[in-house]
Amino acid sequence: MVIKVYVASSSGSVAVKKHQQAVVGFLEANRINFQEVDITMMEEQRLWMYRNIPRDKQPERGNPLPPQIFNEDHYCGDYEDFFQSKENNTVFTFLGLSSKPNVKAAES
């Protein structure tokens, strides 16, 4: 299973940048393997992301903003969903992961 975080590297929105950094930072800190997909560089990926976000999560006007989070092809949610799961301590369930990844202790 690969967690995919759809981001926009050239976003002009400070809020979008902060939200992207929060998601990526959390995944890195918790050593969760993920793939960052830059929708500003790959038109095909951007269109795929738009098509695979459920209708009830689509904005009334315009396109969904990054970050958008998927587990393989399964839609997990957007930043607000991620933030809620973090507040509720249910991020691994939100991501569709069974538990926190095993981290091997560094040998001395």
UniProtKB/TrEMBL annotation:
Main location: nucleus
Gene3D superfamilies registered for this protein in UniProt: Glutaredoxin
Family matches, as InterPro entries: Glut_rich_SH3-bd, SH3BGR, Thioredoxin-like_sf
Superkingdom per UniProt: Eukaryota
Places the protein is found: Nucleus
One annotated GO molecular function: SH3 domain binding
GO cellular component entries: cytoplasm; nucleus
The entry's keywords: Nucleus, SH3-binding
PANTHER family listed in its UniProt record: SH3 DOMAIN-BINDING GLUTAMIC ACID-RICH-LIKE PROTEIN (PTHR12232), SH3 DOMAIN-BINDING GLUTAMIC ACID-RICH-LIKE PROTEIN 2 (PTHR12232:SF4)
Family indicated by similarity: Belongs to the SH3BGR family.
Name of protein: SH3 domain-binding glutamic acid-rich-like protein
Species of the source: Austrofundulus limnaeus (Annual killifish)
